[in-house]
Amino acid sequence: MKVVRRLRRWDSFIDALKQKQHVMAAVILRDMRSRFFNHGLGFIVQSLWPFMHILIILIINTFSGRVAPYGDNPLIFFGVGVIPTLTFTYISRFMSLSVAINKNMLSFPIVKVTDILFARAFLEIVAGSITLLFMWLMYMSLGLSPYPADPTQAVFAYLATILLAIGIGTIAGVITAFIPMFATGYALMGLVFYLTSGCLFVTPNLPDQIAIPLSYNPVVQCVEWMRVAYFESYSDRLLSKEYLLALGMASLLIGLVAERLLRRTLMDEG
C-alpha cells in the first residue's frame, strides 16, 4: 500500500513538473514574440543591445588613450569589468519590468508570478550567453586572447553575478507589480550600480576611505571576482565571495517569500 502511495505521489510530482515546464515555455515564447517585432527572431536583436553597449564602452576607453592597468590590452581589461556589470544590470532590470508588462497573463490561474519572473531571467541569461559569444568572436578576430588565468573562478564569478541579478530582480519585480513607478527608480539605481561598480577603474587602488565603502556594492564584488580570475597579479583585498553569495541567496529567498505572501493580491490585480 505504501509503495502504491509513493508511486502516486511520484506521478503527481512528474505531472506538476511537466505542467510547469509547459507554462514556462508558453510564457517564454510569448515574451520573445511580444518584445521585438512580434516575431521570435527579434530576440536576436535583444542580444545585440548589451553587445553594442559593451562595444561602445570599450571603444571610448580604448581610443581615449587609457592604458590597461592589468593585462596586455585595454579591450580585455575593460571588457572583463563591464561584462559582469551589464549582466547584473540587464537581468535584474528586465525582471523588474516583467510582471508589470505581462500582468494580464496572471488572469490565467495556471500562470504564477514566478513563472513570469524566471521566464524573463531565462531569456536574459540566454541573451547574455549570446553576447559573450559575440565578445569571444570579436576578441579572436582581433588576435586577442579572451581566456582567463583561472577559468573555473571566472565561471563561478559569472554564475554568482547571475544569482545576485535574479535575487535582486525578483524583489524588484514584486515591488514593481504593486508600484509601477519603482521600475523608473530602479533604472536610476542601475546607473548608480554601474558608475560605482569599478568596471572602468581599479577599486583596490583607491584609498581605503573610498574603496572599502564601495566594496559593499555587490556589483563591485562581481567585478573584483572576475578580475581576480582573469589577472594573476590583481589584488583580492576587497573580494569577499562569501558576502556576494550570501547576499545573492538572501535576496532570492526574500523575493520568493514576498511573492508567496503577496501572490493572491498580485493575481487578483492581474
TrEMBL record:
Transmembrane segments: 40-63, 75-96, 117-139, 155-179, 186-206, 243-262
Alphabetized UniProt keyword annotations: Membrane, Transmembrane, Transmembrane helix
Protein name: Capsular polysaccharide transport system permease protein
Source organism of this protein record: Rhizobium tropici
Lineage: Bacteria, Pseudomonadati, Pseudomonadota, Alphaproteobacteria, Hyphomicrobiales
